[in-house]
Amino acid sequence: MLQRPEHQVAGHEAGSGTLGPLIDGSGNFFKPLNPSDERGAQELAFYTSFYSDMRVPHSIRSSYFPSFGGTRILPVPDSPDLLLPHLVLGDLLHGYSDPCVMDIKIGARTWYPSVSEKDFAKYWKKDSESTTPLLGFRISGLQVHHESGRWKPHRDTVRKYTVTDVRQSLRQFVSKNPDETDPDCAFASSVYGGSNGILAQLLELKSWFEGQTLFHFYSSSLFIAYDKGGKAAQAKLIDFAHVMEGEGIIDHNFLGGLCSLIKWVSEILTDPELVAVPDDPEAAERTADPIAATGPAEPQAMVGPTE
Amino acid sequence: MLQRPEHQVAGHEAGSGTLGPLIDGSGNFFKPLNPSDERGAQELAFYTSFYSDMRVPHSIRSSYFPSFGGTRILPVPDSPDLLLPHLVLGDLLHGYSDPCVMDIKIGARTWYPSVSEKDFAKYWKKDSESTTPLLGFRISGLQVHHESGRWKPHRDTVRKYTVTDVRQSLRQFVSKNPDETDPDCAFASSVYGGSNGILAQLLELKSWFEGQTLFHFYSSSLFIAYDKGGKAAQAKLIDFAHVMEGEGIIDHNFLGGLCSLIKWVSEILTDPELVAVPDDPEAAERTADPIAATGPAEPQAMVGPTE
């Protein structure tokens, strides 16, 4: 039984007259390949190439990318007579009950070398109006489930996020009280910290990006999710309509933005106020020493400039 | 006795009608502060701030930046009646006899947030015509001393360097035969490799850039020099007329470009052909294992994507 994903925070939504993704409730996520838009074909080309390129380490593919199962012809909701091919991807939120989700578009620019003049102007404007050039990333959407329900800022609100708003959002995302002025970051240590937490995952991804020269991920997003019901926190890359060949050059645009995000996440973990009033004492013990918390991978990166 | 630096490969040169740096042969490098150009005042402001900010680690300041000794009023060559204030900096090539020098402008863009429209157009054009947006850096100048003399490509040639030319230049820079089609990279292991080599220095600098949120270095250069006469290879940051305050954000533009350069330098060191025909056997032993060669600092970064 196909349905619209309930927890989508960015991108096109399936609805009357607009195409959007569908899920089948059994772990599949179907993304329509609009024949009038070359982006779908480009994303399919990326998945095909990415999943057949043996130079991509298996651990990177399976940990940080959606699974890919080819394409499938499906009816379009509200227009059941219209059949369209869809990408068959893994549903990243399968099994989650009340997921907290964030979509972060990585890179100091989203336009790419071969972009048309018209598209360039569009991307340039969107970038300039966002934190993209300043921060090297922008938040495209988020939702947080807390005790009294779901908190999901409106897209138009998120679109206007300043640097300060983004910093605040990264704290709200792991808080029991996301909609209050002073979010408590109660889940910071369990979601961002620890050897399997978001920070450790971002560091592993960073390590791959320091070496990989196969792909340049323009306008791709980092999708971050966790579930207070117990599902482990995960970071995945999504949206590959503008991936270009790397041609022997690292993706410094993505890597720089990723490092910027890593710095801010690590700052939340090392915030002395948060370490002092932990949600659970064991987690606090782990985060008190961020080096131990994130394992041996480049601990130096986590320490701010000190004398 | 003030004179023009003999081994300048980029930037303004002192001459009839143009201002440029001078050296005194005793270790001082004097950079004119042109009162009609605000860049001088901005660079002075940076040095003053940088050298008084205790959050900058001493080891970073002393290893990767020129020393700073305030300002001094000096006569302008060819116009001895004209007196101008100069920045007093350490002469990075003091004591070198036949230095090999490279100036690499780091970053995927050289324009900065507050740039005027006119300057933006100028920087944008220069960037677009160079490898800056593609590679995250461009070579601004280089010279190599080899047995039969000095090889120094013309500025206009360097300005037109393609991605392929830049890759080649990084090999020519450490070769006995820089002007031949197939540079031998005879000095790769001794200059780029080893625990005190350029790669290890770049990795230490990278580590600082992953954490520092004090300064954003737009349009700054990495100055790399070594001397076949025995002076150790050094990497220094120079040119700070467009350094901006970091305001809590890392310099992802500089960091991304630095990682891109690191990748290419490490590729030369791990090139199986070069490891097989080494200049000196001990160095070859070191470079055969780039992890051992660069010490404990983030060895993962050096290994390309492998299964």
Automatic annotation (TrEMBL), chains A, B:
Its EC number is 2.7.1.140, 2.7.1.151. It comes from Rhynchospora tenuis. Keywords: ATP-binding, Kinase, Nucleotide-binding, Transferase. GO terms for molecular function: ATP binding; inositol tetrakisphosphate kinase activity; inositol-1,4,5-trisphosphate 3-kinase activity. It catalyses: 1D-myo-inositol 1,4,5-trisphosphate + 2 ATP = 1D-myo-inositol 1,3,4,5,6-pentakisphosphate + 2 ADP + 2 H(+); 1D-myo-inositol 1,3,4,6-tetrakisphosphate + ATP = 1D-myo-inositol 1,3,4,5,6-pentakisphosphate + ADP + H(+). It comes from the Eukaryota. Inositol phosphate kinase with a broad substrate specificity. This is Inositol polyphosphate multikinase. InterPro entries: IPK (IPR005522), IPK_sf (IPR038286). Residues 1-20, 278-307 are annotated as: Disordered. SUPFAM superfamilies: SAICAR synthase-like. One of its GO terms (cellular component) is nucleus. Gene3D superfamilies: Inositol polyphosphate kinase. Residues 1-10 have a biased composition (Basic and acidic residues). Belongs to the inositol phosphokinase (IPK) family. GO terms for biological process: inositol phosphate biosynthetic process.
